[in-house]
Amino acid sequence: MIIVLLLIVMMLIALLLELARPELIIFLVLVTLLLLGIITPEQALSGFSNEGMITIALLFIVAGAVQKSGLIDDVMERWLEKSKTEQESKLRFFIPIAGLSAFLNNTPIVVTFTPIIKNWCEKRGIAPSKFLIPLSYVTILGGTITLMGTSTNIVVHGMLLEYGFEGFSLFTITVVGIPVTIAGMLYLFTIGDKLLPDHKGFSQRVKEDAKEYIAELRVKETFPYVNQSVKKSGLGNLNGLYLIEIIRRNERVSPVRNSTIIQAGDRLVFTGQISTMAELQSTMGLTLETGTNLELDDLKNGSIYLVEAVVSHHSSLLSKSVKQTQFRSRYDAGVIAVHRKNEKIQSKVGDIILKPGDALLLLAGEDFIKKYKRSNDFYVVSRLEPPKLLTKNKFQGLCSIGILLAMIILVSFGLLSMLKAMALAVIILLVSRMISAEEIMSNVQFHVLLIIACSLGIGTAMTKTGLAEWTAKGLMAISAPIGVVAVLTIMYLLTSVFTELLTNSAAAAIMLPIGLELSSSLQLDPTGFAVLVAIAASASFITPIGYQTNLIVYGPGGYRFIDYIKIGTPLSFIVMITSVTVIYFVWF
């Protein structure tokens, strides 16, 4: 029991210090428990065959098929365009979003709508920061409405089945989820709206400070590499600068490739950390054009685009400098600037160590957006001015939505379990060729599944060693004399702290065994405690790291860590009070 407790504490510290990617840290703890003989191989692997985890994998596929057509995105964008005031647009947008997130995974919803909202805000001169935190929070709130609304609910459901309980129906959580969502949205539209910062979007600041990002050098006859390639001149591999275009008399050479020949009289257009331009001025035959009349928009010539990408929590780029990642050769894109916590990092771009939530301003081709829109390395990949979203295949979009609705009806009437319904949906989508095997692989978030499976194994270790029972007795000794409401409140607070510091799935897996022990000791309905854990583990509002959707909007909204604390803390208490009250009266 002491070993398990120490491992969990070490896991918490490692996650807080971001010593490695979350799934690797949690997997390491599981392997350590296995090697020490605390859990058997069967118990360690039980999470990988858990019904809840497999259901989540299938949900990723179905949600991907629904969103692939762009039908929902197109409808929502048209709906948003009809609003006249900022408050009206929030009501028009966020109420349907809450409904969508009750039946679709939160992460793809936020990834999809973040660039749409940013573009809409910037067209109207509204700060995107007024919309993006509410977008994340509303999807989290909406996810508490049904069993399939968030992976946390399904994790708890799967664990209940493992422990021999009945599990949740599709709408077990709804009795708590709807009041929680209404209370949370009322706060976000009133007090929370006043607390939101008025930060300009990344692209707005970039356009205002265009001179910081563009510079020109003219090639003289004395330049030693005249009539030689960009590669030989070394201009294509500069630290913190990116050669985007060559203006040659009336001709524009773009994109510039390593094989492009440099000629005398060429105007070399660079973007990036322009403060490093002094290094180039010392090169014989290159002179700085101080009065360049180029703007960032001039770079968007049909084949090259300004792209914003947000580094994900599971990115292979983390803890490496831009130069170490070999970004340009790896992604065929140049990093112009890196923004963190609403500020541009004032150092050479190549030397910046990347962290989760960093917003990267890139110069890239159309292929970059196609290739990396679903990459685990980035949360949001969008042009700063995306083209009008068009539905690729309206019929396929309607069919995929119809299949999802049919599955929801079958589960609602108890004709199929959630697992069987989602498995049937995936088979129909595959047979009808609405989704391909390659798309299935790109839609399934394997790092999330690894976290869930490993967390379930750690939860098993807590139960087996008696750590869950010991913790439950400690909690009961503190809170039981005060009453059941105190027990529920302390249980909620502890789960909430874990979800802010760990991940939502890990928090649920660790806290559910404790909740079940408490329900047994107090002889209360275990369903009430399971619902409490599911809601508390999902309701992560206070930090950007507790829930993926919070991190997704972190960079694009130009937020600071303190913004989440300021807006999220009151919301967390509102959700806690509402949840504890409803659970007490419904189950106890």
TrEMBL record:
Q: Mind telling me which PROSITE patterns this protein's record contains?
A: NA_SULFATE (PS01271), RCK_C (PS51202)
Query: Where does it primarily localize?
Result: membrane
Q: Where is the signal peptide?
A: none
Q: How does it sit in the membrane?
A: Multi-pass membrane protein
Give one GO molecular function term. monoatomic cation transmembrane transporter activity
Instruction: Pull one GO CC term from this UniProt entry.
Output: plasma membrane
Could you confirm whether the keyword Ligase appears in this record? no
Q: Where are the transmembrane segments?
A: 24-40, 52-71, 91-114, 135-156, 168-190, 401-432, 444-463, 475-495, 527-547, 567-587
**Record keywords, A-Z:** Membrane, Repeat, Transmembrane, Transmembrane helix, Transport
Q: Where in the cell is it found?
A: Membrane
What is one Pfam family matched by this protein? Answer: CitMHS
* Domain RCK C-terminal residues, every copy: 202-286, 294-378
**Superkingdom of origin organism:** Bacteria
GO biological process terms held by the UniProt record = potassium ion transport
Protein name (database record): SLC13 family permease
